[in-house]
Design brief:
The protein is mostly helical and 138 residues long. It contains five helices and two strands. It has helices at residues 21-42, 44-62, 67-77, 81-103, 120-136; strands spanning 105-106, 109-110. A two-stranded antiparallel ribbon has the order 1-2. A hairpin with a 2-residue loop joins β1 (105-106) and β2 (109-110). The two termini are 34 Å apart.
Length: 138
């Protein structure tokens, strides 16, 4: 009986790239400049959230995390780990946010779901986002 070969996915497919100091420096300067501007205009809470979002994006980028990748790996290789991770994230988010939304407030601050009609701009944006995700391999 021969072994079944599973196609390489994610990090195994991508070859390591050299760090480009100028690009890293420019990106860091833009992030710090943006955080400084946000801090001056809107307060340090917004600046901190901006940096946390940038850090989360960097972690997801370097972990080669992508939503469509999990589906592709499941269909092509039968590996459902990525799908299970996504379902776990959805379950945790639901368990954490549902009680908060039902209560209507958290720590004295009102919370609620954002409900708005989906117009043409949402459809165009979703289409452009999908193209970018496919081009990026995610």
């Amino acid at each position: 009986m021969s072994a079944i070969e599973i196609p390489a996915t994610g990090a195994a497919r991508r070859s390591p790239r050299r760090v480009q100091p100028r690009v890293v420096g420019a990106a860091g300067a833009l992030l710090l400049g943006g955080a400084g501007w946000l801090g001056a205009q809107y307060g340090f809470r917004h600046a901190g959230l901006f940096l946390v979002g940038a850090g989360c994006g960097l972690v997801l980028y370097h972990s080669f995390f992508g939503f469509t990748t999990a589906f592709r790996v499941f269909v092509t290789a039968g590996d459902g780990r990525g799908l299970r991770a996504q379902m776990l994230m959805l379950a945790v988010a639901t368990l954490l946010f549902a009680p908060m939304l039902a209560a209507g407030e958290v720590f004295g601050t009102a919370v609620g779901g954002a409900v708005a009609p989906a117009g043409v701009s949402v459809l165009v944006g979703a289409f452009i986002f999908a193209i970018g995700m496919q081009m990026g391999g995610g």
